[in-house]
Structures are given as structure tokens and as C-alpha cells.
Amino acid sequence: MTPQPNPQAGAAVKAADRAHVFHSWSAQELIDPLAVAGAEGAYFWDYDGKRYLDFSSGLVFANIGYQHPKVVAAIQEQAATLSTFAPAFAVEARSEAARLIADRTPGDLDKIFFTNGGAEAVENATRMARLHTGRSKVLSAYRSYHGATAAAINLTGDPRRWPSDTASAGVVHFWAPFLYRSPFHAETEAQECERALQHLADTIAFEGPATIAAIILETVPGTAGIMVPPPGYLEGVRALCDQYGIVFVLDEVMAGFGRTGEWFAADHFGVVPDLMTFAKGVNSGYVPLGGVAISGAVAETFARRPYPGGLTYSGHPLACAAAVATINVMEEERIVEQAARIGESVLGPGLRELAERHPSVGEVRGMGAFWALELVRNKETREPLVPYNASGEANAPMAAFGAAAKKHGLWPFINMNRTHVVPPCNITEAEAKEGLAALDEALSAADQHTA
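The chain above was modelled as a monomer; its predicted structure follows.
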């Protein structure tokens, strides 16, 4: 689709936004939201007709791209048939979405509790774990993000937690493996894995195993940096949970539904959690939907005991119809396989080649359509390009990089000193190469701040 400029309409949209919309995670008077006129596939455009290749997939949710005609048609058909209905009833779209999800989750995660998004999924997963075990504490990692609702934000390990951290939410944080910035002074992946597992075992011992309901981990941490866990780590966490009767929760809100080149990132590691949260890619974000996939053992706890939780829009028919269509499209168009192929043959090699030429790129890591570039001032010292949680003038180097990317028609995903390469999972080879070329140009702006 060729964007048609309409600056007057764009100005009206922008004016209404600035007058009435309260934006998340923002100082309201310091932001300047782009007015978006439309989107299709891997691209979106503004009212001036400028088109951007979206290397952020929205907020890493548009796994099949924007405006896929089959998903749009499924939403329209559902709206005409049964646009909404209460969650206590059996509804075809809801039942079919649950069946399709359960068919793809690992192990016996065969019961699906629907939510409106990822944070609510985490809220309910931790509640289920606490009720199932009769214990109160939940362990989660630093360098993590689990959502912005009450329990989820306390589980989060990045600075977005700080303003809302009550220090009384029954959460204990620990260090998960990250070899590039190892908290364990490891020199190899094997050392990092062994020392991270020992650290977790020690944390469990000193917190008291009988007090711990759950350990929650992002299978591959997303916003925190796309740190693929070393071989053996998740298996080791599973073993610790089994040893102490702790519920193992994997957060696949961002990593699930093809993002890593498998239906779920857990499939890469052969690990089956007790609970798994999902959202985002389940229907490419077309209508808000999330959920918890529940093992047989946890589900049995609530077979004759009411589960004390629910949502008015749990399993909303429009959202579930979008999920059914999205999963079918992913099968028909082999989008999971495409994510794996594009990561292995284009994104991975292309990003590593950029790292060789740009002094600002300290590390490339990822899989599938899920990659991160760690930007640094100095490759030898690994000093981040900007300080941890930088803002204002201290964040100027990353701001310059972001502006350069947008100038070259690339919309980046930026967090702290990283840019994430997370395009739609069905991005074509030509589109991926277009994005890498724009990224190459933008990294020159970051290079200006290296030593």
C-alpha cells in the first residue's frame, strides 16, 4: 500500500492525543508521539507519507505483521456472529483458541486460563502457584520484565519496578545467567551456568525452600536484553523446583508464538514448566489477549476447589477468533519456520557482520526473530554506551542512534544501551536486509560516542 500524505489529518490526530491521551511510562509534557496513519506487513507510515520498517513489531507483538487479511476477516466474521459474551459460557472461538494453544504448549500444559494481556497472566500464574503450594514467596530474576500490575511489577527486575516496589510483595530477586556481564565472574558458558545454578540453590536455601511457591523466569528475557540462557540452565532450574516442590513458571509473553523460531522458546531447551504465561504473539496483538497454560498437577488443585480469580473479558470472542486465525496462518504460512530461517541465514550473520565493523557494538545475541545489540563505548572494557537507566543528557548517544535509525526509515526498539532487532516473524529476506542496511547507517551515529 502506498501511503497518501495528509498532514492536516495528522495534525488533528496529534492535537487530540496531546490534549487527552495519558501515555504509559512517560513524562507527559516531554513526549512527542508520532501520529500513525496506517500499517501493513512489516511497515507503518505517518500522515506525511513517511514509511518505516518496524524492527520493534509494535511492542514485540506483531509476529505476523500488520493487517493480515485472514486475521482481519476472522475478527470481522466473529463480530458479526457473536461480538462478546461472558466468560462462564462455552463459546466456539474460546474453546477452539484454547485447543489450538494447548496443542502447541510443551508437556501437559493442557488447560488454558485466558486474560487480557501478559501482566494479568503473570498475576494469575503467581496466584495459582501460591494457592497450589500454600507458600508465599516467589523468586524472580534481575534483568527481567513481567508486567506493570501489582504483583507483576514487583516481580520485574528492571528499574520500572522501583517507583512501585512495596518491598512486601513476597518477591525475592536473584541473578540469572548473562555471560557478557557475568555477576559470577565466569569466563565460559559452562561456568556461567554452573555458578548461576549454585547462586539460585543458595538463594533457595537461605530463603527457606518451604516458603517458596514459585520461581518465574522469562525463558529468553525480552526487554531486559534477549539473553539466551546457557545450555543446562533451565534444566537445572527445573531440577531445583522438583527437589523442593516449587512451581516453575516460564514467562513466554514475548518469546512465545514463533518469536524464537519455535512455537515456544521452552522447546529449544526441552523444558516443561508447571505454568506458562503467554500474550502478544498469540494473536499478533490484533485484539488484547493473554493467558496461562496450566499443568495437570496445578489444574487438579482447582478441580473441586474454586479458583479465586477471573476477568470480565477472559477469553473475549473477538480476541480468541483472532488467536484462532493467527495460529492457523502461522501453520499455513510456516511462519515459525520462517522466523528460524531468517534468524539463522540473514539476521544473525548480518548483525555479526555489523558488529565487526562498528566499534559501538559490543555483543550480538539472539535467535529466530529475537535479537539484541549491546552498544558500548569501548569493546575492551564493555562500558555501556549510556549509563544504566540513563535519561536526559546522559542518554544522548542512544537518542542520536534512534534519530538516525528513523531518518533512514527504520523504527528501532531501544532499551537502555541496547537496540533490539525484533521484526515480524514473517519478515522477508529483502525486508530484513533493508533493515540491516538502515541499522548500519544508524550505528555510525553510535560510533561517534565510542572511545
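The two ends are 43 Å apart (CA to CA).
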